[in-house]
């Protein structure tokens, strides 16, 4: 009978479990910073997140999209939006693509509030900036690969990421330092320059997006 010898590392969780715990801890720190800012500005955390989601969006977004991004009910999102409109931080008007529907934009005051929020959360950006360049590149690629895997669960909300953009051309130069291409700026796209959230993003068709994420995974 084989006898399994005990080691000092018995009971250590799988590395995948430790990755999830680490991401959860980082998320908790960022959330705490967001809540601290929101409280100081007489906002609730959901209102602060809505302002962040509306950042750099020249095209108004629908309430249903906000609810999906926040993983809350449309009614809950509506209550937060109503409060932000009353505070003068969000503007609600007819959608540009459908006059029967409403869309949401940041007001000038709302944009200023978001800039203030980004400054308050700058500690996280400072921490990431302090990493070695190689570590940052590896971390970015790893996070993209993790998102690609999460996409398969259909639990991850829509992103304005390169891989879901109609301007993204995958593996145009395979094996090179810039394997992809951005048709918007007409230039090779190094992996280190891939964006999670791009203001110039235009959605591609679902089939192409799915292929892009699956290839990246």
Strand order of the largest sheet: 3-4-5
**How far apart are the termini?**
41 Å
List unreliable stretches of 5+ residues. Answer: none
Look at the helices and sheets and give the structural class: mainly alpha
Q: Mind summarizing the main beta sheet?
A: 3 strands, antiparallel
**Binned strand content:** 5-15%
What sort of overall outline do the alpha carbons produce when their principal axes are compared? Answer: globular
Q: Can you give the mean pLDDT?
A: 88
Number of contiguous helices? 8
Number of distinct beta strands: 5
- Helix percent reads 40-55%
Our Rg estimate from Cα atoms comes to 20 Å
Order of helices and strands: HHHHEEHHHEEEH
Protein name: Winged helix-turn-helix transcriptional regulator
Organism: Massilia aquatica
Domain HTH marR-type: 16-149
Keywords: DNA-binding, Transcription, Transcription regulation
Explained architecture:
The chain is mostly helical and 217 residues long. Helices cover 49% and strands 8% of the residues. It contains 8 helices and 5 strands. The strands form 2 sheets. Strands 3-4-5 form a 3-stranded antiparallel sheet, with no helix packed on it. A two-stranded antiparallel ribbon has the order 1-2. Helix 1 (15-40) packs across helix 2 and helix 3 crosses helix 4. The longest helix has 26 residues, at 15-40. The relative contact order is 0.09. The mean pLDDT is 88. InterPro entries: HTH_MarR-typ, MarR/SlyA-like, Tscrpt_reg_MarR-type_CS, WH-like_DNA-bd_sf, WH_DNA-bd_sf.
């Amino acid at each position: 009978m084989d006898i399994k010898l005990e080691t000092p590392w018995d009971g250590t969780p799988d590395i995948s479990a430790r990755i999830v715990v680490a991401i959860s801890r980082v998320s908790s720190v960022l959330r705490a910073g967001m809540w601290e800012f929101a409280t100081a500005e007489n906002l609730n955390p959901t209102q602060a997140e809505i302002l962040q989601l509306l950042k750099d969006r020249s095209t108004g977004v629908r309430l249903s999209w906000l609810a999906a991004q926040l993983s809350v009910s449309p009614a809950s999102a509506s209550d937060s939006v109503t409060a932000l409109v009353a505070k003068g931080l969000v503007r609600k008007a007819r959608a540009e693509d459908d006059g029967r529907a409403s869309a949401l934009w940041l007001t000038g005051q709302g944009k200023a509030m978001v800039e203030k929020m980004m400054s308050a959360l700058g500690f996280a950006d400072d921490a990431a900036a302090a990493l070695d360049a190689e570590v940052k590149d590896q971390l970015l690629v790893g996070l993209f690969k993790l998102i690609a895997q999460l996409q398969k669960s259909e639990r991850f909300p829509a992103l304005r990421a390169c891989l879901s953009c109609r301007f993204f051309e995958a593996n145009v130069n395979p094996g090179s330092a810039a394997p992809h291409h951005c048709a918007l700026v007409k230039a090779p796209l190094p992996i280190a320059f891939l964006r999670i959230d791009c203001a110039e993003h235009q959605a591609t068709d679902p089939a192409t997006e799915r292929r892009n994420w699956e290839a990246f995974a």
